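Example with several molecule types.
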Amino acid sequence: MTREIENAAGIPVVQIATIVPIMLTVGANRIVPGVAIPHPTGAPQLGEDGDKAKRRELVLRAFKAMETSIDDQMVFED
Amino acid sequence: MKLELHKVKVRDIQWGDVTSVKDGVLYVNKEEAISLIAEESRFAKVDLELARPGESARIIPVKDVVEPRVKMDRKGYYPGFNNTAMARCGEGRTFVLDGAAVVTCGPIVAFQEGFVDMSGPGAVYTPFSATQNIVLVVEPIEDLEQHQYEQILREAGLKLGVYLADKCKDTPADEVTTYEKGTVPEEVEKYPDLPKVIYVCMNITQGLLHDTYVYGSDIRPALPTLLHPNEVLDGAMVSGNCVSACDKNTTWHHVHNPIVAALYARHGKDLNFLGVIPTQESTVLMGKIRASQMNLSIAQELGADGVIVSEEGYGNPDTDLCMNARNFEKAGIKSVVVSDEAAGTDGASQSLADATPEMTGFVSCGNVNEMLEVPPMEKLIGWPESIAHLSGGAAESLRPDGSMYVEMQSIIASTAEIGFNKVGCEWI
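Resulting structure tokens for the full complex:
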């Protein structure tokens, strides 16, 4: 879906996903590593405040990925 | 290490006054067995049903299958479960009701259990259409949390299996199978020129009712470890997971692992079987990297020349499978992986979620998405309407006449990735 949106609409897509190797295999371009398969975009084990901070950090990282010009697949670790 | 399996062949199962086995018939005192299971206060209702090969019967949804077994030299069977003392599996004598099976039935997570048909076209795809089954049908008390329901049903299945075997264990065996192998250093000294092969058995270890137990311990938060093959064949591993039915390794499968049996049969002839690494399939990337790295470390420390890796489940565990193949091949250890495929109903889709060029030896256990039509059955054990929620089923799968049109993945163990099944793939 990530690739199709990019191809059809010409807008950059950031994929937040836990198992990065699968994203690399299927050809996603901008990849932000998620937390865990049952909760890719949160960290409930950190409590309410920690969870919110993690979610915010992931979204900000995704924005950064979206704004970054790339020539090849890229994983945004930080 | 020496293990003797004292097998009494079971060719029929009947209700009886005394739980016993005679002339190949397993008699079960229904009342006594039910009261044993009903000791668990979190069951609201306990019932038992019988299902024999060839009958027009469907069991749905099936959670686990357990072979009735008991140790002859000590109490119980599965160390760490149901107050069974911790002890090493794989030594001494084990009594086996060969051909009988305890099947546990109950809708825990809905979408990740499956069905067993005792006859018809669906029967050929599951080993449990050929066993004499005593089916445990239980309902939990109201509002019992799912993980507790899974736990009590898992433990009840093990308990019933041990009870049946314990009542019959004085019956002389029809056959005794012996498994004997020394320690790794002893066997290397005996067979210095044979290639050393290790088996990595991947297990669903993802929490949320997706767990596997070794010696009663949930191995999700653990590191990969090394077992003597006898331990695997004698109750060290227990299934506690609700994965897609087709590629769930039930507790029955672990003690019948055909990869372990095949490597054992060739041990000392053309290879040296080092042992079994039960390993994890983590839900976090670092966990996957860690487990595959530890698998390689153990194999290298033992001097392995070759490895067989089997998967459990599909989807994200395909990444663990790829990591294992890549690590071993890069380290110069030849690897063969055993897995099923999710290639779509037409078989044309990419069949694994992940891929790696190092995965050069692949044994396929079939396509989980293959469609199958199964006729109505006269006897329905369990909750037939649950097909709507099973993986491989849909709301329209169950027709008014009781027939079903389903994916192969809704049949228990139809694509078992330890190779205990009858389908594969064809080169085209």
